[in-house]
Every structure is written in structure tokens, then in C-alpha cells.
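2024-03-11 09:14:02 DEBUG pipeline.ingest accepted 1 chain
2024-03-11 09:14:02 DEBUG pipeline.ingest length=204
2024-03-11 09:14:03 DEBUG pipeline.predict start
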Amino acid sequence: MKHSFLVVLLLLAFSGSGSPAWAEKADRNKPMNVEADALRYDDLKQTSEFTGHVVLTKGTILIRGARIDVRQDPEGYQYGVVTAEPGKLAFFRQKREGLDEFIEGEGEIIEYDGKADRVKFIKHAELRRFRGSTLSDEIVGGLITYDNNSDTFAVDGGPASPAPGGRVRAVLSPRSPASAPAAAASAVPPAALRPSVTLDGGKK
């Protein structure tokens, strides 16, 4: 079935310029389209439950999973949980504002907290940035938490990490002026990613 509904807004970005490079701003005003085998909506509780090969699109946002549960609090903030099919990973993708770059993330579970503006990729978590069609940065761990307000991310290892030994793994490419026309035009030097842990999982 197809259903247009205001549900999850998963906003994700890496800091790749002098100022925060937020997710595509136009996405918030685009219609939400959801394809699923079934939908259960409770107007009193303000909850929606999409199940069965769920595909959600909203502007440049694309989300795939076996199930998406969404609730809205009295203040209007939304909270979403995307669950993968057994043996697979839930998927999230969104364009970055003003850049030819996309953010992709995967995990067995993806959680979004609309009030805190925070996204979590849980179990076999992966986060990737593409510049055009070229993979630029890649991070894997057991849990990846991205805070859009502070433009920072934290990565934990452990048994649920896809990296050998349950460790955190990151591959970060240098940012050349040619790949950042927006930053070059504003004469602001690009900033590197700002992880809150080191590669071996220790605090900075």
C-alpha cells in the first residue's frame, strides 16, 4: 500500500565545511510517501506502524526496513524506530545541503529522536559519505550516534561491530578544494570530521 504521512525526519550530516553542512533543508517541506504491506495508525496515541518491506521517501530522504514505528509527543516532536528484516540491515540515505554529497547509514535498528535531533544506528552500524558517486568516508562500529545539533558523532565497538575484533573502524578521505565548491566559494577552510572517540574506542 502507499500512504502519505508525516513521520520520521532523519536528519544526518558530516561536518565537511567551515560551517555545519546540514541535511537537505527542502526535505522538510516535501510530501512523505510510504510503501508497505500494512499500516496500523492510532490517532489517539499518535502512533503509526508500517510493516512489510517498508520503503519511505521524503525529498532526498530514503529509508528501507522491515518495519517503521513512529510516535508523536504532545509538543509535536516525532520519534521513529526502523527495524531490519532478519539477516539484513535497515537503510537510511539523505543529500547534504548545498553539496553534491550523500550520507548513507545502516544498522539492524535505526532510532531517531526528533526532540534531541539525534540518530542512532544500532548493531552492525555503518555510516558512509559519498561525494557524487565516489565513496569518501566510511565508519563502522557496534553503535553509531549522530547529534545534528552539535554536528558530532560517537562510535562504540563491541560484539555488534562488523569490524574485526569488535573494534571501531574509520576511513576518512582528505577534503580537496575541488570537491568542496561551496566551501571554496565562501573562502572558509574545510573542517575535518569530529569523532568523540579515538579509533581504539578510548575517549579523546
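2024-03-11 09:14:41 DEBUG pipeline.report The longest strand covers residues 118-131.
2024-03-11 09:14:41 DEBUG pipeline.predict end
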